[in-house]
Amino acid sequence: MDNLQGLALDRNTGWILLAIFGVAWVALGIFWGRKAKNHEGFSLAGRNVGMALGAATTMATWVTSNTIMLAPKFALEMGVWGMLAYSTASFGLFLFAPMAWRIRRLLPKGYTSGDFIRLRYGRRVWVLFLLVSGIYSIAWLVTMAMAGGVVLQTLSGIEYRFGMSVILLVCVLYTLFGGLYAVIGTDFIQSLIILFGVVIVGIAAIWQVDLSSVHTHLMTEQPALLDVLMPVALLALFNNLFFGFGEIFHNNVWWTRAFALRGEISHKAFFLSGALWFPIPIAAGFIALCAAPLGINVIDADGVGPLVASHLLGSVGAIVVFVVVFCSLASSIDSLLAATSELFIRDVYHKWLRPQAGEVELRRLGSVVIILLGLITWLLSLPRLGELNLVLFLSGPLVASVIFPVLSGLYWARAGREGAFWAILSGSIVGLYTYFTIGWYAASLVSAVVSLLVVLVFAAFPRKPFDWQTLDEAQQQQSAK
Amino acid sequence: MGEVDSQEMTRIVAPVDAYVGMEPYVNDSGAFLLIWEYPDAQPLPVVVERADNDAFDNAAVLYRGGDDRTYVSGLPAGRHYFRVRLAGEFDSVFKDIPAPLVVDIAYQPLARVFTLMMLGALTFLATVVIIVGGTMCFKRQREREDARG
């Protein structure tokens, strides 16, 4: 059997690739950044993003290091159901499509998901929401930065802390220069590279692997991977579905895109991005099923996808994987940096601490917050904390608990702040309890179920229907004047 | 080459430290990382074997090479035995077989799985109904308002 501890790329090639893409992204960031004339241009790309860029940025943002590295891990541990379980994360994009339509109409001048929660449910729920969103965003940023360092080290031998630091620095720089214009522009190019790379690896896998021998090997040596009743995989199917719903429905990355896309195309762009995203985990995951039949010794389940791909395609494959992972990391880290800094500036600073702050001040603070977020992420990623996905799955119950408060807030006039508060709190607590007593594969599912029940119970109490006009804050302020 | 004593044999150290008479390691996912140590920490060629009996009759070879770990997945429910032997010329000098790791794969009971899946399906249905139904309702309302001018 092969020993894959040998490197697929030499260190110099790794550095050259890193330098080429790093310089290219920063240059593009500076180029696109010229379009941002004010804070709205910087943070929402002028609310005028079209179909192609919109679909590409959404798809590229959702293809994270988790898609490239955890989808194969799901397949390695849970077989065919594992790949499908990961693909259910695309359902969040499909369902966010009609939500984006609704969001644009309720908050025509909105900036963040926090705006909506504050106006809809008041300050107590808003604080809880910001806490959940903040924990999740930092966890996501840290795991992505760590994944970058791990992949670079695995493929090219570049030391973890250097690879992680360079990727993070590149993303901070071009987000800093260009804001959402740069994020969306680079996302477009990155989405094309990701799709192209995944197709190449998929074709190579089918070309080089004898599917019948893979099937025979799995049947005899790893039969649970083909078992339609594999318990962990069946639970992971729903768990990942609700984790994905929670991530997309609450996080400012997606709300920012809903505000940035042109009103009439926002729902189409989200639907198209979901359709483009759906097959990626299946293509990326399939190759992991071939690891044992190909005689590859997997020594790190997190890195099974890149390892098998580089084994199938040699150094060319390693370069493809290197570039795809770099693009998928960069396209997600930049989006999260931009959206999280916006959440802090708009929600905490402008709406709470300094309502009189002007555009220039907000723009300047935006840059400071992006640098600070990058610094916090770097400090937390430096010690290479345990398994990549451990922290991310732990945040699953938190974000899943927010699904129904967000949905009922958007669609039910009877939904109130008490129901939203207790749904988030009880869903999070019961979900975390499930994480530690049953397992990660049921935590988000249980959290979502509990959250729904609490929302339904509170909605049954009679209350004054919510006035939807309240959400149009700009209109309200104009009327008050 | 002379004989080596049992302290110089390979030893499985993860997912749990294997020793003679140990309790089985219970796992509910069918996947885990198997790690072993070499005599005197020197990497040597090894053979990793899995069997469904402690005599290792009809054992399957999971790995042969010089690594110190391998990821095991796709195991069916039930008891499994793992051992790591030195391979090639080193194998022939063994007096004792290293202690096997005994693993019990105990998946979640299907009754619990189906209950959770049913709850998940209902919650998914509720999500779709709220979003699609809500959006259609507001679109109709908007069309009525537009018609009224």
What does this structure look like?
The complex is a heterodimer of chains A (481) and B (149). Chain A is mostly helical. Chain A is 79% helix and 0% strand. In chain A, α8 (160-208) crosses α14 (304-353). In chain A, 62% of the residues are buried. The model of chain A is unreliable at 1-5 (pLDDT under 50). Residues 1-6 of chain B have low confidence and may be disordered. Chain B contains 1 helix and 8 strands. In chain B, β4 and β5 form a beta hairpin. The longest helix of chain B is centred in the C-terminal third of the chain and has 39 residues, at 110-148. The interface between A and B is large, with 54 and 44 residues.
CATH class of chain A: Mainly Alpha
Quaternary structure of the protein: heterodimer
Spatial separation of the terminal alpha carbons of chain B = 98 Å
Q: Architecture of chain A, CATH level 2?
A: Up-down Bundle
Assign an overall shape of chain B: elongated
**Count of extended strands of chain B:** 8
Please give a handful of descriptors for the protein shown.
heterodimer; A: about 475 residues; mainly alpha; Sodium/glucose cotransporter; 21 helices; B: alpha+beta; Immunoglobulin-like; 2 domains; five-stranded mixed β-sheet; three-stranded antiparallel β-sheet; 8 strands; about 25% helix; disordered N terminus
How are the SSEs ordered, and which strands pair?
The complex is a heterodimer of chains A (481) and B (149).
Chain A lengths: L10 H23 L5 H6 L6 H12 L2 H23 L2 H17 L6 H9 L1 H34 L3 H49 L2 H11 L9 H20 L1 H9 L5 H12 L1 H11 L14 H50 L5 H23 L6 H7 L1 H5 L2 H9 L5 H21 L2 H21 L12 H8 L1
Helix pairs in contact in A: 1-8, 1-14, 3-8, 3-12, 3-14, 4-10, 4-13, 4-14, 5-10, 5-11, 5-12, 6-7, 7-8, 7-14, 7-15, 7-16, 7-19, 8-13, 8-14, 8-15, 10-20, 11-14, 13-14, 14-15, 18-19, 18-20, 19-20
Chain B lengths: L10 E4 L10 E3 L4 E6 L8 E6 L8 E6 L3 E4 L5 E9 L14 E5 L4 H39 L1
Parallel strand pairs in B: 2-8
Antiparallel strand pairs in B: 1-3, 3-6, 4-5, 4-7, 7-8
